[in-house]
Amino acid sequence: MTAPRVIEPKVRSMLQQPLTVGESPVWDEETGALWLTDILAPALVRLSGEGRIDRFDMPAEIGCLGLCRDNRIVVGLQTGVHLFDPVSRHLEFLSDPVGREINGRLNDGKVGPDGHFWVGSISEAKPQTDEAALYRVGADGSTRTVATGLTSSNGLAWSPDGRRMYHSDSRQCFLQAFDFDPETGAIGAARRLRSFTEEQGRPDGATTDRDGFYWSAGVSAGRLNRLSSEGEIVEIYILPVAAPTMPCFGGPDLSTLYVTSLSTDRTGRFEAGTVIAFDVDAEGLAPFRFG
Q1: Which of 49, 65, 122, 211 could be a cystine partner for 152, CB 3.0 to 4.6 Å?
Q2: Using CA atoms, how far apart are residues 202 and 225, in angstroms rounded to an integer?
Q3: Beta-carbon count within 10 A of 133 CB
Q4: What range does the record give for the signal peptide (predicted)?
Q5: How far apart are CA 8 and CA 183, in angstroms?
């Protein structure tokens, strides 16, 4: 096993306004806009190609988002999955997978190759419990629980052919993979790919590139880990933010990495959440759309 290559990328700042917990960046290749969430604000944020920043206030904490085929945005709120129209600002309730029985909220989520919204929850109990789960939500609001026993569901991404789904648990610090049917959304049994140490970076949000590598935000280590499909860390990107939360590919040729981060004083000084970008020698894939 060869040692991973360590890279310090030339990073540019994309946002001057501070974020509480920046998360869930999604590139809209049709408009050239970057969407993301500010979980605790709570707000949905759009960075347009010409540099304009639009903030859409949400009625509850917002963990994640996905693009819809009808130009709406599917969002995972504390109160469930909703459809948001950026033009009218109308919010339409779709499903509440978590319910009010447990102390938790929706966390990481993405639209899958099957056109459904795959979204996981996070335990907000103190101490955290393993009552969180992963769900599959359809455009008609139908909801299916696909994985349980989680603490902080995270890291959703798919292989380029759509036949493998990656998923992590940030608190239990593991990465797993499932065989995936892109037509039906059926998944196989979970296969554990690796566990992470705090120094390697607890696995937060993630994305995949066209060559099948998995990019995981190491939220506890100020770095981005690029992993092979076997779970081996092959590259480490040292970032100028202490707590990166999720990467996504964007830009005209999908070879720019956008990375969100959260507010933290872990390094001994307070650092606000933000969005950074840097170019990489890799190419991402356009996001799937809901509906």
Answers
A1: 122
A2: 10
A3: 19
A4: none
A5: 39
Domain 3-277: assigned CATH number? 2.120.10.30
Query: Exposed, middle or buried by CB within 10 Å (0-12, 13-18, 19+), for 22?
Result: buried
Mean pLDDT rounded to a whole number for the chain: 96
Query: To 5 degrees, how large is the angle CA 67–CA 72–CA 78?
Result: 80
pLDDT, position 128: 87
Q: Where are the domains of the chain?
A: 3-277
Other CB atoms within 10 A of residue 8 CB: 12
DSSP characters over the chain: -PPPEEE----EE---S-BSBEEEEEEETTTTEEEEEETTTTEEEEE-TTS-EEEEE-SS-EEEEEEETTS-EEEEETTEEEEE-TTT--EEEEE-SS-SSSSEEEEEEEE-TTS-EEEEEEE-SSS--S-EEEEEE-TTS-EEEEEEEESBEEEEEE-TTS-EEEEEETTTTEEEEEEB-TTT--B---EEEEE--TTT--EEEEEEBTTS-EEEEETTTTEEEEE-TTS-EEEEEE-SSS-EEEEEEESTTS-EEEEEEB-B-TTSS-B-B-EEEEE-SS-B-PPPEE-
161 included as an active-site residue = no
Find the catalytic residue in 108, 114, 204, 209.
204
**Structure confidence at residue 153 as a pLDDT band (50, 70, 90):** very high
Give the pair of three-digit tokens for residue 101: 């029985």
In contact, 218 and 202? CB cutoff 8 Å: yes
**pLDDT of 266 above 90:** no
Residue whose tokens read 């029985």: 101
The number of angstroms, rounded, from the C-alpha of 176 to the middle of its chain's C-alpha atoms is: 15
Residues annotated within a binding site for a divalent metal cation: 23, 154, 204
Query: For residue 106, what are its two tokens?
Result: 């929706």
